[in-house]
Amino acid sequence: MSQNPYEKIDDNISGQTQSTQPGVEEKMDPAPIYDDPNFKGADKLKGKTALITGGDSGIGRAVAVAYAKEGANVAIAYLADQEDEDADKTIELIEKYGGKAKKYQTDISSDQNCKQLIRQVIEDFGKLNILVNNAGKQFPQKSIEDITEEQLKETFETNFFGLFFMSKAAITHMKKGDCIVNTSSITAYNGSPGLLDYSATKGAITSFTRSLALNLSDKGIRVNAVAPGPIWTPLIPATFDAKTVDEHGADTPMKRRGQPAENAPAYVFLASQDSSYMTGQTIHVDGGDFVGS
Fold first, then answer.
1. Which of 34, 189, 198, 267 is catalytic?
2. Is the omega angle on the peptide bond into residue 260 within 30 degrees of 0, that is, cis?
C-alpha cells in the first residue's frame, strides 16, 4: 500500500525557524501542501466572491485555491511587505484555476482598515458572498507573568478584534445565502499552557461564531468555523524553536502534523450549499487531537 502523501512530507521536515510573524511560506522547506491534485472542483461556489484574510499563505492559501477550483473569485488580504511574494503566488494559483483574484495589503486590527478593505473588495468585485476570517498571530510564553500588555493587545487586536471588525463591515453587503467562516483552533477546546493569550482569542472566536450565527439567522447569513490542529503553515516556524518545530503534531492520535490542503475541504463545505442547514458550528480538522485529549 502506498504511503499517504501527507505523511511523506512530514518525514522530511527538519528544524527551522523564522524571526518575524506571521511567517513566510516561500522560506519553508519542505513547502506546505496547499493544492491537493485529488481535489476536483464541482462548481459549488460558481459565481461567488470570497475574501480571505491571511490568504497569502498557509491555510488561507489552500482555501483560496480550493475556492477557485469551485468557481469562486477570490480576494486575499495580508499584513506585511515580506509576504508580497507569497501573496503573488496565491494570486497566480487562483487565476490558474479560472478565478478573478486580487490582493490587498492591510492591517485588519484597525476598524477603519477593515471598512476600507470591504469597500475596495465591493468596488473591485461587485459583491461579497463569503468572508473567511483566517488571519492570526501567536507568541508563546512559559508563564502568564511573561505576557506583556503589549503582547496581549497585539494578539487580541489581530486574532479577535480584526475578525470582529471584518464581520461587522462585511455583513452590510451580504444577503441571504451568504456566509462567514472563521478560523478557530484546537487550543480553544484543549487549551495550551504556552499559548495563553492565543488560546483565549480562539475561545472568543468560537463563542463569537455561535453568537453571530444566532444574531444573523433571521437574515439567512450563516456563520461557522473550522478548528485546525497542528498544521504545517508559516506560523509554526515563525513561532517555535527548531526542536518544537520538529516535534510539531507528533502527539496527535494520528502521530503527525496536518497540511493546509487537508483543511480546505472543510472551508468549501461551510461556504457551499452542502452545509445549508448548519450555522454556529465548528468542524475539527486536528488529527483526532480534540477527541484524543
1. 198
2. no
198 is catalytic: yes
- pLDDT score of 2: 42
How many Å apart are CA 248 and CA 237, to the nearest integer? 10
pLDDT at 233: 75
Say if residues 109 and 166 touch (Cβ distance below 8 Å).
no
6: its cell numbers: 501527507
Is-contact 279 222, C-beta < 8 A? yes
| 8 A C-beta contact, residue 125 and residue 94 | no
Give the model's pLDDT for residue 53. Answer: 98
Exposed e or buried b per residue across 113-129, where buried means at least 16 C-beta atoms within 10 angstroms of its C-beta: bbbebbebbbeebeebb
Q: Which strands make up the sheet holding 101-105, listed edge to edge? A: 101-105, 73-78, 49-53, 130-133, 179-183, 222-228, 282-285
Q: What is the mean pLDDT of each run of 10 residues along the chain (293 residues)?
A: 57 63 70 92 98 96 98 96 92 98 97 98 98 95 97 97 98 98 97 97 98 98 97 72 72 91 98 98 95 70
**Which pLDDT belongs to residue 19?**
65
Q: Burial of 214 by CB count in 10 Å (0-12 exposed, 13-18 middle, 19+ buried)?
A: exposed
> Phi then psi for 193, rounded to 5 degrees?
-65, -25
